[in-house]
TrEMBL record:
One of its GO terms (molecular function) is helicase activity. This is ATP-dependent DNA helicase. It comes from Elysia marginata. The keyword ATP-binding applies. Residues 100-210 form the Endonuclease/exonuclease/phosphatase domain.
Amino acid sequence: MLNVQPSRNKPTLLNDLIEQSNTDVAFFVETWLRPTGDEVTVSDLTPQTYTKVSFPRVNGRGGGIPITHEKALNVTCSIFSFKTFECCECKITNKGHNLSFVCLYRPPPNTKNKFTVKDFVAEFQNLLETYAIKKSWPIILGDFNFQSDKSDNLDVIRIQEVLTTYRLKQIVAVPTHNKSHILDWIITEDEEIIKDLQETDKIVSDHFVVTLQLDIQKPPP
């Protein structure tokens, strides 16, 4: 997982990052890719043995969530429609077992978008409620633009209270940004499924690369 900021001038760097890390699924946010005109960039950042799904921001510049995954994986992706954040779901099917990820990018509120934390909390709860009803939780990851290292921050407290209500936990405990804050979160109901969680500074953007290994069986190539 990585906030790219933006990706148009980094396709080779991102391509190499995916291959060198031998990742199965890569989630990027804030790529600034356009709905049309950046097809070459999307292709260039995708290694030959991988395939990609891209959800660019439709209105205005910035944002965007592309997903790159190994072709051997059976992955289905779909987009959610929320006002205060961009969000997509990816379902991985392996031998009758399903694993879901939700990748999220929350733009910081400003005078132009007029987003508020209150509105985000309400929409985020709506997202969580859809999975609470299904009784099947995805791994939620992305750039939340909340500094979870500031445990006394009122906005962080509000989000943590929401997670606690649904028995979810944000598990990233080290800085993911060059300003020494934890902006990129991984939220899960089951910590035991995650074997290894790391962050590394690959100098791709002002965010660090966050990687995790899951305790599940990978299908053969």
